[in-house]
Amino acid sequence: MTTTSAEDFDTIRIENLGRRFGGTTALQGFDLTVERGEFIALLGPSGCGKSTALNCLAGLLPLTDGQIYVGEQRVDVLPPEKRDFGMVFQSYALFPHLTVAKNVAFGLQMRGVSRRETTRRVDDALRLVRLEDQAGKLPGQLSGGQQQRVAIARAIVIEPRVVLMDEPLSNLDAKLRLEMRTEIRRLHQTLGLTTIYVTHDQEEALSLADRLVVLRAGRVQQIGTPQQLHDNPANWHVADFMGYRNLIDATVAGEPDGQGRVRIEADDLSLLGAAVNPVMPGDRVRIAVRPSDLVVHTAALAATSPVNTLEAQVEIVEYQGREYSVEVRTSAGRVLHVRADLAPEVGATVLLSVDPSRALVYQDDLDGIPAVDPAAVVTA
Asked: What Cα–Cα distance (Å) separates residue 141 from each residue in 97, 145, 321?
């Protein structure tokens, strides 16, 4: 099975995409260029605009602003069935009265593909998703993971230019999500599909995508590779979504040093952190620290008072396989999340330290700082 129609374009250009519902702006100024064969994940919390963007691409929602081009062809003026996009929905959207094979064949029949060609392509698609032995069953006789595979087969059998996936794994249990994640990545690599994938799960996005687009309140916050966003979030909103669970409001207490580090102070702590944005003494800032970057020191090491430390009391310890998730509280009542190799005792006072380079200091803005890769975006 090949995605022959994918040869028709080199890029998808999304220019100044906007969508309003009455007086509410759901999406604004969305710019993105997707290379053919690329896997893009739209990532963000509920209500950030990611599903709105996908539905605009699919033609299920009309645009308020902007244009969408596949190669040189403008497609936002076309109805959904003329865009040559495959769609995988969160709810599977299978016909319950049709067999697996007939569900997969439906799109080909609507396009007038011959019976012989339809049979061949359905067989190929079911083989790719490893469901060839389930062709005669009804969807209700399949597991959730199998139903999702049928939905994927139905999307790819038409050999679309682009596959759009709207949180396709959210209805599955944890084990099935991991299995399907691997299957989606395998299919993407095997077929060279151009894929735009919506998710709220940052681990899922990191494992699948070539590039991530993080949205908040309808605006792009950052575009980059998984490693770029994981290691260098552009603002505290992105950091929060990429696993920096400890967000501390503080004030800049001095000028940045020659290494870009700045002293910050909050009720019960004084720390050195790495200034991501330009800051001045007296500025209100927000510090972002990953739980894994907070080191728990033993009593013996605590006596040496490492740099960049704070004391806290252990409140909750959860065993999570190779490590422990620990919740601590500082003297001012601040709750922090920590990862530890050894389990501290509940009620014990521990000393925590963090490398200044892993305590990221951001301007405490309310709306986020749009910070995108200019090379990856086409401005209308």
From this structure: 11, 12, 35
Residues 6 or more apart in contact with residue 45 via CB below 8 angstroms: 200, 216, 241
Q: Tokens 């001045």: give the residue.
A: 280
C-beta neighbour count of 191 within 10 angstroms: 18
* 3 state SS for 25-52: EEEEEEEEEEECCCEEEEECCCCCCHHH
With a cut of 70, which residues of the chain have pLDDT below it? Answer: 1-7, 298-307, 366-380
Question: CA angle, corner 191, sides to 185 and 193, nearest 5?
Answer: 75
In this structure, the chain runs to a length of 380
Kindly report, residue by residue over 328-347, the tens digit of the pLDDT. 999 889 999 999 999 999 99
Contact between residue 362 and residue 276 where contact means Cβ atoms under 8 Å apart: yes
H helices then E strands: how many in the chain?
A: 9, 20
Q: Burial level of 227, CB count in 10 A (0-12/13-18/19+)?
A: exposed
How far is it, in rounded angstroms, from Cα 39 to Cα 53? 16
User: How many other C-beta atoms can be found within 10 angstroms of the C-beta atom of residue 189?
Assistant: 11
For residue 65, what are its two tokens?
């602003």
Q: Which amino acid belongs to residue 209?
A: A
Q: What is the distance between the alpha carbons of residues 307 and 310, in angstroms, rounded to a whole number?
A: 9
Residue with tokens 């605006």: 219
Using alpha carbons, select from 105, 125, 127, 100 the residue that is nearest to residue 116: 105
Among residues 164, 223, 224, 226, which one has the least CA distance to residue 201?
Answer: 226
CA 233 to chain centre: 13
C-alpha separations of 319 from 66, 313, 325, 364 in Å: 49, 18, 6, 34
144-197 pLDDT, tens digit each: 889 988 999 999 899 899 999 999 888 888 888 888 888 889 888 888 889 999
For the chain, the distance separating the N- and C-terminal CA atoms, rounded to the nearest angstrom, is 36
For tokens 């299919």, name the residue.
187
SS3 304: coil
373 vs 351: CA distance, rounded Å: 39
